[in-house]
């Protein structure tokens, strides 16, 4: 029995919400860049434990160069995103920062169409427009 991808997507949303709440409290007493550093160490440890428990380690030389290159770029983008996110949380209420951060959903739809060549359906397009509207309302 395989788990549907939607369950993992909901898990992502749930843990992202907790990230905002825990992060907001965490950066109240710690510099946001240092907080991001410590958070990254925790993520590294949790990921290493999971990969170890599932026996999924592979030598980098055995992996796709293209895949690794894009994962490096993704890691850089993630790090910059987290640095910006934690700095914003330090400066503003989580209830204002998190919705603006979710404008990334609209950008993903745009980039998926323009860069990945994905087909834009009316449902996805309308959903992205509604999210953009919510972001604008939250930012005001």
Report on this model:
The protein is mainly α. Helix content is 78%, strand content 0%. The protein has two domains: 1-93, no CATH class; 102-140, no CATH class.
Distinctive features:
140 residues, mainly alpha, 2 domains, 6 helices, 78% helix, globular
Quick description:
This protein has helices spanning 5-26, 32-53, 65-91, 94-101, 103-114, 122-139. It has 140 residues and is an all-alpha fold.
Which SSEs are present, and which pair or pack?
Blueprint: H1 5-26, H2 32-53, H3 65-91, H4 94-101, H5 103-114, H6 122-139
Helix pairs in contact: 2-3, 4-6, 5-6
Topology pattern, helix = H, strand = E: HHHHHH
Shape: globular
> How many structural domains does the protein architecture include?
2
Mean pLDDT across every amino acid position: 93
Proportion in β-strands: under 5%
Counting H and I runs of at least 4 residues, what is the number of helices?
A: 6
Class per helix and strand makeup: mainly alpha
**Count of strand segments:** 0
Residue windows where pLDDT falls under 50 for at least 5 positions: none
Fraction of residues in helices?
over 70%
Q: How far from one another are the termini?
A: 46 Å
Rg computed from alpha carbons, rounded to a whole number of angstroms = 17 Å
Sheet having the most strands? none
């Amino acid at each position: 029995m395989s788990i549907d991808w939607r369950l993992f997507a909901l898990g992502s949303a749930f843990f992202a919400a907790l990230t905002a709440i825990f992060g907001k409290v965490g950066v109240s007493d710690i510099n946001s860049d240092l907080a991001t550093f410590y958070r990254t160490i925790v993520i590294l440890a949790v990921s290493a434990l999971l990969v170890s428990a599932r026996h999924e380690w592979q030598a980098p030389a055995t992996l796709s160069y293209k895949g690794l290159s894009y994962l490096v770029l993704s890691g850089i983008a993630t790090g910059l995103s987290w640095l910006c996110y934690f700095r914003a949380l330090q400066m503003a209420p989580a209830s204002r920062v998190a919705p603006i951060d979710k404008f990334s959903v609209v950008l993903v739809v745009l980039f998926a169409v323009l860069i990945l060549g994905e087909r834009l359906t009316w449902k996805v397009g309308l959903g992205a427009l509604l999210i953009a509207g919510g972001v604008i309302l939250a930012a005001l």
